[in-house]
Amino acid sequence: MGHLKAQPILSHPLRFQSKLQTHQLRESQIGAYFSCKQRQQGTARKTGVCHAGPGGNGNVVEIESPEAFQAALEAAGDKVVVLDIATKTCGPCMMVYPKFVALSEEYEDVVFLKIFGDLTTETRKMMKEWGVSAVPMFNYYRNKELIGSVKGAKIEAITEELLKHRALA
What residue stretches are annotated with the Thioredoxin domain (predicted)? Predict the structure, then answer.
């Protein structure tokens, strides 16, 4: 046989001019599958907040510390805040998340947060303090006060609770 030329396994029609462009494409492809720490290469460790961007996270902000959670509630003021409490290995959490993202895009006047309770010792402690016994769990806040909660991955119940509290705003 003649000499075979090696062919790339994956071919991309675009040639990247910089590492930044390569990073942006990679981030958009893997967005929801990796933690904020991996996506932002350490930024989350400093702030405890991940501003979810490309990758199918809509307007959902990932929270990674009690301080970041309190800061997000402060910043929300009198807006309704919906907190998605999940774990990395929870199947129903993963199934409902794209619908939660869709809600965040539809209701831009509401603040959408997400926390992985099994991410760090701090997040585990937060789940314990909140009395979370099953995930997913969705807590609703206004003016830093807990105003409602939904357990389970039923998007209809999650949406109904959101609309109820949004109407009272």
Answer: 25-164
Domains of the chain, by residue range, sit at 36-167
The pTM score is 0.69
d(CA 150, CA 137): 6
Count, residues in the chain? 169
pLDDT digit string (tens) for 15-48?
Answer: 333 333 333 333 333 333 334 434 444 443 333 4
Q: What angle do CA 51, 52, 58 make, to 5 degrees?
A: 125
**Catalytic sites, residue numbers:** 90, 93
Report whether 81 contacts 73 (CB < 8 A). Answer: yes
Phi/psi of residue 85, nearest 5 degrees: -100, 120
Cβ atoms 79, 169 nearer than 8 A: yes
* Burial class for 46, CB neighbours closer than 10 Å (0-12, 13-18, 19+): exposed
Fold of 36-167: Glutaredoxin (3.40.30)
